[in-house]
Design goal:
four-stranded antiparallel sheet; about 40% helix; elongated; five-stranded antiparallel sheet; alpha+beta
């Protein structure tokens, strides 16, 4: 749900959430005096937290809602603590200790939750979206979606939909993101995939583009690649996995090519980039003739894919072939991906 930034009554939203929670608890446990008292205590605790959480609120509708909660709190104190002494003691303890302790705990927990959310967003590569996410959080909705969209080149645009959900304590969690890749040269082909919270610890925003482009990414010792011909019910792609014991050695695959490499550092940099899922520019040197090509990892066939400057796919065997051949000959099949510049992502 993408929202307009008009003011939402956050207290009303949280009250509805509490009513829903209370209803579930009543269905879950058989009614008894003990259960009823426990529920009343929980509701009283919720009221206290709401009064602390929104105590500096100046919005008219929310201030009105707070007054209703304050009245409800007074009724609950009488129900939970029937004796006059018990009520006075609770109010005194709440005034001197509980309110301050609850406020500190609430602020501390909120800071921890927000820091955790910030770390996950940065880990997923959405640093620039943090301010927008915070604006949505202030609206207090149970769940929301933050759109992030940008062009990668003249023909390709990528759209991310970041999904967030509030838990029962009122803290937000990053649920995952759906990424869609649009290519002007293929308007009928819309590739998309949902990356869950578990996927976020493995893949980031940049890698989502590489995967949707059909390339493989190395994570935790396993090469992973989308099967672009196999989707699930959620319109996401099945992931093909090639673990270490599958036997793919990208260093070996590259060493079989007549690459023009200045030193070991350049070779290592190329390997790292390919492992991250990128298509990299390189130069083949055969019989003194240089040819600019683009290379990407191909773990399934324990090789690499090679494209010429027009992104026609080359026959890897011919590129490795006899020294008499002056250049790689293009394969008949042609890739439809727009020719990238160096370090194209």
């Amino acid at each position: 749900m993408v929202m307009d930034f008009h003011h939402v009554n956050r207290i009303e939203t949280e009250a509805l959430e509490w009513n829903s929670k209370e209803e579930r608890l009543r269905k879950l446990f058989k009614s008894s005096p003990l259960i009823e008292k426990s529920l009343l205590k929980e509701k009283l605790k919720w009221c206290e937290n709401m009064l602390v959480k929104y105590r500096k609120n100046n919005h008219f509708e929310e201030r009105s809602a707070l007054q209703i909660i304050k009245n409800e709190r007074s009724n609950l104190i009488k129900l939970v603590y029937p004796s006059t002494f018990g009520q006075i003691f609770y109010k005194l303890m709440n005034l001197l200790i509980l309110e301050k302790v609850n406020a500190k705990i609430l602020i501390s927990d909120e800071l921890k939750s927000n820091r955790s959310l910030e770390v996950k967003l940065k880990q997923a590569g959405f640093n620039d979206a943090l301010n927008k996410v915070e604006r949505y959080m202030r609206l207090g909705q149970t769940k929301f979606t933050v759109p992030v969209s940008y062009y990668l080149n003249e023909k390709e645009r990528i759209d991310h939909a970041l999904q967030f959900k509030k838990d029962e304590l009122g803290y937000y969690h990053f649920e995952g993101f759906r990424t869609s890749l649009h290519d002007k040269s293929k308007p009928s082909e819309n590739r998309q995939h949902y990356f869950s919270a578990d996927d976020v610890s493995i893949f980031n925003a940049k890698q989502s583009y590489d995967l949707l482009s059909g390339r493989a990414v190395l994570t935790d010792g396993t090469w992973k690649q989308f099967d672009l011909n196999d989707k699930d019910a959620d319109s996401s792609y099945r992931i093909k996995e090639f673990p270490e014991n599958y036997g793919y050695n990208i260093e070996k695959a590259l060493s079989q090519l007549p690459l023009k490499i200045s030193d070991q550092l350049e070779f290592t940099s190329l390997i790292i980039s390919l492992k991250e899922g990128r298509r990299e520019e390189a130069v083949l040197l055969k019989d003194g003739v240089e040819q600019k090509v683009f290379i990407e990892a191909n773990p399934q066939y324990k090789s690499v894919n090679i494209y010429n400057e027009s992104l026609k796919k080359n026959d890897v065997r011919r590129c490795r072939g006899h020294r008499k051949e002056r250049s790689c000959k293009s394969a008949k099949k042609q890739s439809g991906i727009t020719a990238p510049k160096n370090h194209h992502r």
